[in-house]
Specification:
seven-stranded mixed β-sheet, mevalonate kinase activity, Ribosomal Protein S5, domain 2, Ribosomal_Su5_D2-typ_SF, globular, GHMP_kinase_N_dom, alpha+beta, Alpha-Beta Plaits, nucleotide-binding, magnesium, single chain, 9 helices
């Protein structure tokens, strides 16, 4: 049985603190950006299996290499339902920029999975959702941590440790999180390799940095619980200094961090893989948020987002059952 349309929605994510250290089993705090959405809509058509998106439009069978993960995911779901010959059009509409550390590929996998399960009127639980999203992410990233899928499918911040179950981390702070696109695509692969090489060449020193990032994540969790916004900001700034030392920042990121720190930010750092992508800055109130946004705009930043940190504590989405 198929419905007239199947709808799936997901959202962007941002690593608050703990990037790179998370690769080595250290904790990270990851926040969903609930205002930055991605939607997938599946509708029946007379013939074929078509994809329409910003990155590829055409038959599923001819999907370009960068779409290989989503193609594999769709084929896996169709096989699971014995619907390999089903005729449909899958339309993907996204507000999430690619290669900015905001979870675009995982958000696509999550929304596509939800859309197809809805279209074929099948039950979907969270474990299955994350398992299937991992199918696409494995093709796209090789060995995904699961962080992106867990957060882009959620409306709650999570405490993430690789290889362990994630759990909700309620955030109810009075400030805002400002996210600014540097205009440079993030280079996660090269950045991760740089840290790995540093770990091989200078294991003791690099391990100390990883331990320090882990301590900052723990300190941030405590500061969130006790609503110490200034401490969270201070931890951002300290983490950025470590990430700079590890070689995963760049001149553009460093400059935007400098600008933010002098224009209302309590603390600023890169987020995600680094060497491009986005910065995040913490502001205490709307006046400082506006001041920061104006300063970033004056530097040529064209894309920014503001995520209020008040009541960012909803529970993780439970998938709807279609009975």
């Amino acid at each position: 049985m198929t419905l007239e349309q199947g709808i799936g929605v997901s959202n962007a994510k941002i690593i608050l603190i703990g990037e790179h250290a998370a690769v080595y089993g250290k904790p990270a705090i990851v926040v969903p950006l609930t205002a930055v959405k991605l939607a997938a809509v599946t509708t029946p058509i007379a013939q074929g299996q078509l994809i329409e998106s910003n990155y590829y439009t055409g038959p599923l069978a001819r999907a370009i290499k960068s779409f290989a993960g989503i193609k594999k995911l769709i084929q896996t779901i169709l096989e699971r339902f014995n619907q390999q010959q089903a005729n449909f059009k899958l339309t993907i509409t996204s507000q999430i920029p690619a290669e900015r550390g905001m979870g675009s590929s995982a958000a696509t996998a999550v929304a596509v999975t939800r859309s197809l399960y809805d279209f074929f009127d099948k039950k979907l639980n969270r474990a299955t959702l994350l398992e299937l999203a991992n199918v696409a992410e494995t093709v796209t990233h090789g060995a995904p941590s699961g962080m992106d899928a867990a957060t882009t499918s959620s409306t709650a911040p999570i405490w993430f440790v690789k290889g362990h179950a994630s759990y909700n981390l309620p955030i109810n702070l009075k400030g805002n999180l400002v996210i600014a696109d540097s205009g440079i695509r993030g280079q996660t692969g090269p950045a991760v390799r740089t840290v790995r090489e540093r770990m091989a060449d200078f294991p003791q020193e690099t391990s100390v940095f990883m331990d320090q990032l882990a301590e900052l994540a723990l300190s941030t969790r405590k500061a969130i619980a006790s609503q110490q916004l200034a401490q969270v900001g201070q931890n951002f700034t300290t983490a950025q200094l470590i990430l700079q030392t590890l070689g995963v920042s760049n001149e553009t990121i460093d400059h935007l961090v400098f600008v933010a720190q002098r224009n209302g930010s309590l603390g600023t750092k890169l987020t995600g893989g680094g060497r491009g992508g986005c910065i995040i800055a913490l502001t205490a109130d709307q006046a400082n948020t506006d001041r920061l946004l104006a300063a970033l705009a004056a530097e040529g930043v064209t894309q920014t987002w503001v995520q209020p940190l008040a009541h960012l504590n909803q529970t993780i989405n439970q998938e709807y059952d279609h009975d």
